[in-house]
Amino acid sequence: MTTQGTQPPSSDQKSSASDNASSSAKEKGVHASRRKLITGLAATPVIMTLASRPALARNFCSISGWGSVHPSGRPDDQLCNGRSPGFWRTYWSGPSESAWKQTPFYQGPTNPFSSKHSDDYSIPTLGQLSTAVIDGILTQAEVDTYIADLTTADSFDNLMGTPTALPDNPIDMPIQRPTIMQVFWEHEGSDAFHYAASLLNAAAWGETGYGYSLAQMRTLIATRDGTAGFIADLEGLYDR
Amino acid sequence: METNWRLTPGSKLTWHSWGSEHLVFNENSGATHLLPLEATKALQSLAAEPQTITQLHDAILETSDKSMPHPSTEWLEELLKQFQQLGLSQLVSE
Amino acid sequence: MKLSNLSYDATASKLTTDGLRLRTGPFITSIRTHTPELTAGLQLLYADHILKEDAEFADFHIGVDRPRNLRRWLHPQIFFYFDEVAPFNPFPSEQALPLFEWGLNWAISQHAHQYLIIHAAVIEKDGHAVIMPAPPGSGKSTLCAGLVHNGWRLLSDELTLLDLHSGQAIPLARPVGLKNDSVEVIRHFAPQATLSPMTVDTHKGAVALMKPPADSVEKSDQPAHPAWVIFPKYIAGAAATLTPHSKAEACIALGDNAFNYSIHGVNGFNLLTNMLDHCDCYDFSYSNLSDAVSIFSQLEPPA
Lengths: 240, 94, 303
Fold this sequence. Notes:
The complex is a heterotrimer of chains A (240), B (94) and C (303).
Chain A: E1 2-5, H1 21-39, E2 48-50, H2 85-89, H3 95-101, H4 126-134, H5 140-150, H6 156-160, H7 180-186, H8 191-209, H9 214-224, H10 230-235
Helix pairs in contact in A: 8-9
Chain B: E1 5-7, E2 12-18, E3 21-26, E4 31-35, H1 37-48, H2 53-63, H3 73-85, E5 89-91
Antiparallel strand pairs in B: 1-5, 2-3, 3-4
Helix pairs in contact in B: 1-2, 2-3
Chain C: H1 8-16, E1 20-24, E2 27-33, H2 36-45, E3 60-65, E4 77-82, E5 91-92, H3 96-111, E6 115-125, E7 128-133, H4 140-147, E8 153-156, E9 159-163, E10 169-170, E11 176-179, H5 181-189, E12 199-201, E13 205-210, H6 214-218, E14 225-234, E15 241-244, H7 247-256, H8 261-277, E16 280-286, H9 289-297
Parallel strand pairs in C: 2-3, 7-14, 14-16
Antiparallel strand pairs in C: 1-2, 3-4, 4-5, 6-7, 6-8, 6-9, 9-10, 11-13, 12-13, 15-16
Helix pairs in contact in C: 1-2, 4-9, 7-8
């Protein structure tokens, strides 16, 4: 094995150029804390990684694409796929259902107290479900089916590919970790809200159609979580 | 008995640093990593020879300011797993 | 000879036959089109660009035209052609000019691997260049357009080409793309600027292109060493403020915004890190172009 290049740095090595470390320390502190927030682990090692990508993947669909001069034309002539959180959370819109099915993720069932084709992905408590059975609003079989279905819904953690700092659902809920749909409906406007849409875009259309594969988008989020302008970058990839 | 960790065989690493920030380019993966100081020390130490987590911990402690917090063995274990995912390190039994 | 020396008819004749060949930065681009929008747009925006002799080799062969079959569209549409191939969906014909600019950017970013290509604006003054990576919506192009009419030379508003051996930024002075309100901002801030007609984009609003200043085009053979990497961000109401940015994070950001960083491997890493050894890095927030120009005028090259 070899280690090449410049002398491996010692802890007190100074570069010959001006040192921004002290002035950026506050910024790094903010960034590091936000990374801890999203990973949910205290004092976890933080490595920022710029992954290698095939040159062709750095195409016009990616963040560094052509937003500055981008005559996007009519929606059906879009060159790059990418949908907003609003699109992804309305599963029963037709196009959204088709898009979800292009991903390996499952949105889960709608609230059993609402119609199947509603966009109500809120989750009732176990108490509410029990009461509904007692009151004859739902059968036990319906509740059992609902809970079984719910447990197969993909969590936001699954989508991110890593445990996140989103708080657990309340203790009396049928499932512990928030689903992707819960992020869209209960955490509107948050970083997780945008991450969820961006990851689904990547899962549905990949490098060629969206500009990033799922793995690349996960790496990008891990790398840029908490950095200035990142959410705006992701928003720039919606609805192109 | 603890297992040894080592730098992934055949690794070619190029370093560049500014103050306490360290970048390393891994020619095998083509990835560029920005490492905190402790992670840099760990990777350098691993590049010198395979070590257990305890040995790495002691090696880092040896070169650190004793008045400052230093990484725990749990932290190092998490770091090595991250290195492993990034293709930088592996368990010697692999 | 410059394009301005050709009449409209002569320009159109070249465009519809063997191709109009222009020097665009370090490249020679051969252009073919039958669309009057693009013909007029080229005459306006590339007036100061040097014509190349027809027999000379061209780096890029670009076409913007109606589809080449007899199929009729509901609305007039055009394709972007690269080496006779149409890689993208069609666009409305009135978008021929921005489509050409966008397509040439794409062609350069996909093929000019003799450079490290970063999605960033780059401007120069007194031999020192500022590289400004920025996502869409950051106000980069508006800032760039304002600065190049206030003492700075335009190297590029979209593609920073870095020479792998010298590390210098290579000029690629071409029209600057402006969107929506930015067009009026520049009209007022730099009334001497030449702007194309607006193209109404149904999806993102209106787009216009600003002709690169003549001296920027004339100095196309003068590269510049980067001295600053500045990440601009337009924030309504914000005071123009430079905040130091970590060099290491700047390196990651530059690599992330590069089109071909992975192709160049360790050479790309070394180019960026060596460049950053000699650069100061900042975040820049602003809301007022005059204040931005003032801040930039006070930049001192690193020691």
